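FORM 7B: Structural annotation worksheet

SECTION A. Query
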Amino acid sequence: MISQNETERVLDEFLNTLGVTVERSVELTKFIDSSTGVVSTLRHADGTEESLESAWLIGFDGAP
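SECTION B. Predicted structure
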C-alpha cells in the first residue's frame, strides 16, 4: 500500500520530467467519452470553466 501523498509526489516528479505541470485547485465537473478521446469540463478556483479535449483521462484519489 502506498499513501496518497507518496503517490502524488512520485507522479508529480515523473510528470515534471516530461515538462507537465500539475494544476491544483482545479475540479473536474464533467467528462464525455468521444470517438477521439475525452472532452472534460474543468472549474478553476476563481470559478472560471474551460473545456479540454485529451486522448485519455486518468483519475486517482487514494485508498478508501
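SECTION C. Observations
Residues 4-54 form one domain. The chain has one domain: 4-54.

SECTION D. Sign-off
Analyst initials: ____
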